[in-house]
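TICKET: design request
STATUS: open
ATTACHED STRUCTURE:
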């Protein structure tokens, strides 16, 4: 929705105080969360997306492979191709390592939930050089499989979610945590800070 008419205060004349006219009701009914210095439409959209992605990961918790894929999407901020082609040797029980776009090496310490999801998947999957092997042959799953996993579990709780939604949330959280732009750029595998 382009305009939140409910946020307007039409009792105020726009010529007298346009800000109060355009935002008065929204400002009165919206509280800034105690952990934020400001709060607006982008924050609300980001918080909503975060809740949707949490719901997607939770929905897949009984399916070992999909849960592990979704945890890695959430916790690494990596592109779907990087998740799909992750070598088994690049997981050491606590961290994952990968080469991203532009041949940048990345290392991510994983939270307990992701470690548990990957360990469960490793107990169930067939032997392979890849963390997520293809159903047949020696290769890895196709990056489109990652899309299908997100679509399958998002269908009920967040149909508009996409693998890039996980990446965008990862980058938002990094910005909100106050990480320097060059670190976020490196974590995202971006060639330039302008893209971050």
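STATUS: resolved
RESOLUTION: sequence designed for all positions
ATTACHED SEQUENCE:
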């Amino acid at each position: 929705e382009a305009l939140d008419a409910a946020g307007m205060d039409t009792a105020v004349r726009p010529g007298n105080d346009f800000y109060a006219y355009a935002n008065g009701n929204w400002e009165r009914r919206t509280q800034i969360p105690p952990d934020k210095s400001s709060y607006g439409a982008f924050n609300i959209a980001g918080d909503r997306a975060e809740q949707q992605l949490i719901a997607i990961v939770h929905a897949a918790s009984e399916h070992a492979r999909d849960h592990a894929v979704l945890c890695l999407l959430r916790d690494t901020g990596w592109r779907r191709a990087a998740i799909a082609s992750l070598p088994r040797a690049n997981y050491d029980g606590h961290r994952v390592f990968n080469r991203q776009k532009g041949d940048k090496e990345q290392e991510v310490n994983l939270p307990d939930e992701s470690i548990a999801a990957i360990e469960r998947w490793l107990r169930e999957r067939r032997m392979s050089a890849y963390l997520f092997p293809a159903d047949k042959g020696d290769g890895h799953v196709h990056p489109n499989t990652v899309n299908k996993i997100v679509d399958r579990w998002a269908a009920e709780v967040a149909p508009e979610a996409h693998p890039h939604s996980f990446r965008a949330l990862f980058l938002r959280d990094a910005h909100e945590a106050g990480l320097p732009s060059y670190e976020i750029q490196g974590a995202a595998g971006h060639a330039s800070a302008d893209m971050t």
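CLOSING REMARK: The longest strand covers residues 95-100. The mean pLDDT is 88.
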